[in-house]
Amino acid sequence: MTREAEILSAGRQILLSEGLRALTTDEVARRARVSKKTLYSLFPSKDALVEAVVVSFIEANLARWDEVLETEETAMDRIVASLDLVTHFLPQIQTSVISQVGRVAPSLWERIDAMRLERVARLGTLMEEAQRDGYIRDDIDPAHWFLLLTATIRSALTPQVLLETRIPLPSLLDALRKIYCDGLLTEKGRQYVAARQGKEKP
Q1: What is the per-residue pLDDT across 90-112, written as a single tens digit (0 to 9) for each?
Q2: Is the four-CA dihedral 97, 103, 104, 105 of positive or negative sign?
Q3: Among residues 11, 34, 93, 193, which is most buried (max CB within 10 A)?
Q4: Cα-atom radius of gyration of the chain, to the nearest Å?
Q5: By the 8 A CB rule, do 31 and 39 touch?
């Protein structure tokens, strides 16, 4: 593991266990067992270090979404798997990070926002394929759906909204799924999703 990777790994551990405010150059250098001179040679400021740690943390977790999107399964399978991942997995790792970024490093939010919307755009492409397969209603324009969904994500799923409303992120994601996804399905699509979910129950 390179020095940079060791520093980022130490930073992610602090982020998860103690939060963004604990992410100081002194503490990261101590945990990574490097000198502050070495740390600053790679990350010239605390802000640069914080951004690199948070982005690496988000990228590492979004890699699971990328794996889902890049499988050889049908478009509908990848859509359902993506929604399951977002609804059940991401909130466990992102709720505190999102709120912390909003308080401590708000300028980072634009970068995080771009990273998540890139995945949503790929869902839009899958939606077109699922529509051709008969799982999604043909009276819905995927481009319109994508526009409305991204606008809602950018206005509702933000650090400011989460902090002000105190609505749990899983609740917002569940509502988003019901409004923007469940209503898209044809009868064939509903049966397909129900069958898939039934198979995945223990």
Answers
A1: 665 565 566 666 666 667 777 77
A2: positive
A3: 11
A4: 19
A5: no
Buried b (16+ CB within 10 A) or exposed e, 164-197: eeeeebeebbeebeeebbeebbbeebeebbeeee
| Torsion angle defined by CA atoms of residues 60, 96, 50 and 158, in that order, rounded to the nearest 10 degrees | 90
**174 close to 162: Cβ distance less than 8 angstroms:** no
For residues 8 and 28, what is the distance between their CA atoms, to the nearest angstrom? 8
Domains of the chain (ranges; CATH) run 1-44 (1.10.10.60), 58-200 (1.10.357)
- Say how far apart CA 124 and CA 122 lie, in whole Å: 5
Instruction: Extract the tokens encoding 197.
Output: 């979910």
Helix (H, G, I), strand (E, B) or coil at 185: strand
